[in-house]
Each structure stands twice: as C-alpha cells, then as structure tokens.
Amino acid sequence: MASAAGVSLATASRALAQPAIVSAETRARVRSAALRLGGPHALDTARAAPGNGIAAIVPTLDNAIFSRALQSMQGVLAEAGHHLLVASSDYQPEAELSVLRGLLARGVDGLILVGAQRPPEASDLLAQTGVPVVLTWCDDQRFDAVVVDNRAAGRIAAEHLIALGHTRLGAICGAQRHNDRQRARMQGVHEALGAHGLELPDWRLVEQEFTLAGGRSGCAALLALAEPPTGIICGIDELAVGCLVEAQSRGIAVPGGLSVVGIDDLEMAAHLSPALTTVHVPTARIGATAAGLLLARLRGDACERRIELPIELVIRRSSAPPPDRR
Among residues 61, 126, 148, 243, which is most buried (max CB within 10 A)? Predict the structure, then answer.
C-alpha cells in the first residue's frame, strides 16, 4: 500500500493512524491506495494494524546515562502502547547514518536521537523524511529537542573549584570532534576560567575514551606534568570515577591533595569514597520528556518545540580548597 501511494511505510502508517499530522494530499493518496488494493474494509484493517515502533539511537549502551534515559523512554512509550527499538552508533557519525537509513527503510513512527552534531546528509535525511524527530541533550532548530545547558554544566563545575581557591585546573573529557555535549562542557570550563583571568592550556586538557580506564589514563597524564593541577574537571562522571581511582592508587588523597568534579550525577556518585562532587543532569527526565514530546507530535497535539531541563551543582566530598589554601 505504501509503495502504491508513493510514500514510506511510516508515512502510510501515520496517514491512517494519525491523519492530522500528514498533508491532505498524502492522506488522499494513501486512502486511495488502500481502497484500491484492499477493498472497502481495507482502511479499517490498516488502522487496526500495530505501529512500527519508536526508535532511539544512542552513542553507546555502555554508559549508564543513556541506559537510564532509555529506561525512562521505554516506560512512557509502553504506557501509550508503543514499543521502543534501540540502536547504538558507537560515537561514529557514519554508523549513525547507516542505522538511520535502515530504520527509515524499515519504517518507524518516530525517532529519538542524542545530540545535534551529525553529517549534513543525515540531518537532511531526517528533515525530508517526515518522521517526527526529537533530539536530546543538544538542539537543532529544525527539530524538536529536550536539552540541558552543557556549556553551563562545565562553567558551574569550574566556578565551584575556582571559588574554593583553585587556580591551576586540569580537565579530562571525551573526544570533542564528534561530540557536541563534551565540546560545550569544555567551552564552559574555558569561559569560567577566562572570567577570572585563568586558563586551561592544551596540555592540561586530556581527551580519553568514556571509560574508567580512560579516566585513570587521563588522570595519570595530568599528574605527570611538572606542575600538575590541584583540581580536575571531568566531562562525565565515569571519567571522574577513573580519575579518583588513579589518584588514590598513587597515594594522593582526594580531596586533600587533589579535587575531582564530574558532570552527570550517576547513581554511583553518591556512594563513592569520597562521594563525588558533580553537576546533576536529569538523565531520566530527559528520556521521559523526549518520549512524551514525541507522543504529543504523533497525536498532533500543540507542544513546545524546545524543552530545557535544569541542572545543578551537587557538592559532596571530592572537592575542597587546594593544599596551599588550608
């Protein structure tokens, strides 16, 4: 039927199940094809058919922040009678584009994606397909989005350490080239330092994989400097945990000899020793809100184009004034 109407499977499904969100011309083409192929009862049969599902593409399934967001998405969608399809891009733009093509060819009712940075070909494909799209964590004016201020997250983390008296800070983050969230967080760190006449030189900013081992390796590199930092900001909590482990393995007390601050506020952050100071990002709310926004679009409801959720500093035991300020 979709082929006969000259539209995608997802568009045909929406034309029958949620006709208000497709054009009158498309509705007419799909209706005509259904009647032509299936007779007078074809429309009722097609409307009763189950949807194709909502698809979410995340950078990785290894990171707890995305697992938590997916769990929240699934709960909201399940209550509305939708199932969630999940795919991972492994932080590779080309892999995400390949997954997008496969999902759209298969037919999905909607897409939830992480971040706004992707190849023009992928963004153009999303804009042209007609499938509702919700971005998370970062936004693009062409699509609905549920966001947090990643730049502010980095700025808040840096301002906290500066207020404690730290002037020589280091940072560990993921590769910024294809990750707009990490790039924005590090921009926030630079802004906070610059506002106080301080800087984060390249040799005190280390990019690592988003793993505990990456946090350890980044911390080791910073501590090996002739003038190591007295405080380290990590782009995500997982890197911060690795940083804590590495410092303690070298006999460096945290926060006595080194302060460590993360971003995200994973569940484990409050249970470490010392408990991790971090910037809380409402991961579960991001997932639930994104799912709710997408459902509203599928129903044809009026809704906000961009929803920004608040972040906040959570001060625990891993940060303190530098040794020379005590």
Answer: 243
